Amino acid sequence: MLVREFQNRRKLIITPDLFSNSFLDVRDQPELMKRRKDKVNLHSNNKNKKVFIIGLVIAAIAISGILAIVLPSVGHNVNNNNGQAAKALLIKEISNPTYPLAPALGSSKAKVTMVEFGDYQCHFCAAFQRDTKDSILQNFVNTGQVRFLFKDFTINDKPGDKASTLAAEASYCAADQGKYWQYHDEIYKNSKGENVAWVTKDILKQFASNVNIPNIKKFSECLDSQNHSNIVEQNDNLANSMGLQATPSFILLSTGKSQQEPLLVDGAQPYSSFQQAIAKVQSST
C-alpha cells in the first residue's frame, strides 16, 4: 500500500511516480474553505500533516493552493488486472448519477466530469454555491467542456438529528417531479448554517412550493416516508469509502479514460483554483 505523509506546510511535495511536476502546499487556513468531519483530526502537530491511509490507496499532493489527490493503480501486491478493474468500477460509480432523475448538468460528451460531494447544512458548500458554482457552469458546463454532478456527504448529521440526510432526501423527492437542480439551489439559497435547526420538514415543504413542484402532496408523502434514504446512504458511503474528510470535496475525472488519475479539489476554493484544476485534467485528455 502506498502511503504519503504531508510534509511541513509551504514545502514542495514531490511525487515523481504520479506527476512530472511538483506542487506547493499553501493550505495554512483550511477552516476558511471546508467543513471537516468532526471525528477526524487531520493534524498530528503544528508542523506535520497526518498520514492518510485509505482503502483504495490515495496519494496526496497540493496544486496551486488546492488539495489534490489521485487514485493510483491499486497496490503493488495485488493482481494488476484486478486492481484496474476495481479502479474502473469506482470511477464509474463516482462519475454517474446515483439516481437517474437527479441528472448531471452539461453535455454527456464533455471531456471532464466534476463531482461535488456536499452537505446541505455545510456553510462552505453554500459559499461555493453562492460565489463560484455559477461561473463554473457558465464557463465550463454550458460550453460543453465539463459535466457536473452532486453527491451527498452528510457530515453534519448528529445522533438523533439527521437534518442533512433529511434535506438530501427532499432533493430526491423533488427529483421525482423533475425539479432536482431547482430544489438543490433553493436549499443552498436559504442556508442558515450548520446544526441551527433551520432544516425541518415544514421548511423543506415550503422550498418545494417555492420552486413550483407540481404535486406538493406527493412531495410531502415522499419526504415523510423517507423514500430515498437509500440513495443518500449510498452517496455518503461512497464518500467515506474513498476517505473524503471534508465538504465540499470535488473530484474531477477525465471522461472515458478509466486509467487517467482522478483529481480532488478540497474545499470551497476560489474560481481560479477550479480553472487550474480543470485545465490540469483537460491537458491529460
List the helices and strands and how they pair.
Layout: E1 12-14, E2 22-24, E3 35-36, E4 59-63, E5 66-70, H1 80-95, E6 112-118, H2 123-131, H3 133-141, E7 146-152, H4 163-175, H5 180-189, H6 201-210, H7 216-224, H8 229-241, E8 246-247, E9 249-254, E10 263-266, H9 271-282
Parallel strand pairs: 6-7
Antiparallel strand pairs: 1-2, 3-8, 4-5, 6-9, 9-10
Helix pairs in contact: 4-5, 4-6, 4-7, 4-8, 6-7
Structure description:
Helix 4 packs parallel to helix 6. It is built from nine helices and ten strands. 42% of the residues are buried. The protein is globular and about 45 Å long. It is α+β, with helices and mostly antiparallel strands and 285 residues long. Strand 4 and strand 5 form a beta hairpin. The chain has one domain: Glutaredoxin (3-Layer(aba) Sandwich). Strands 7-6-9-10 form a four-stranded mixed beta sheet, sandwiched between helices. It has a two-stranded antiparallel sheet with strand order 1-2. It has a two-stranded antiparallel sheet with strand order 3-8.
